[in-house]
Amino acid sequence: xxxxxxxxxxxxxxxxxxxxxxxxxxxxxxxxxxxxxxxxxxxxxxxxxxxxxxxxxxxxxxxxxxxxxxxxxxxxxxxxxxxxxxxxxxxxxxxxxxxxxxxxxxxxxxx
Length: 111
Fold this sequence. Notes:
This protein has 111 residues and is of the alpha+beta class. 67% of the residues lie in helices and 13% in strands. The chain has a single domain, classed as Winged helix-like DNA-binding domain superfamily/Winged helix DNA-binding domain (Arc Repressor Mutant, subunit A).
């Protein structure tokens, strides 16, 4: 993993560590939404919601788009795909380790 990729991943994981930002992502995952609607749904002020959206945008997890005079926010699927790819790398190794432990214990367990 390159330094730029590692930095991007670090930003994304730090952004996801906050429950408010995860809730905002949940709200915008199905369709782009304006700040006011997002703020109302998650129970935060527009200013606080805008701050969290800025963090999500810098982390590559959300994107702002213009629709006429409205500024809408949506999930940036590329940013989420990078996080998922990183986390997915853990599963094959973990599953192989678990299988090895189970198989080694099969010979020692007596019913």
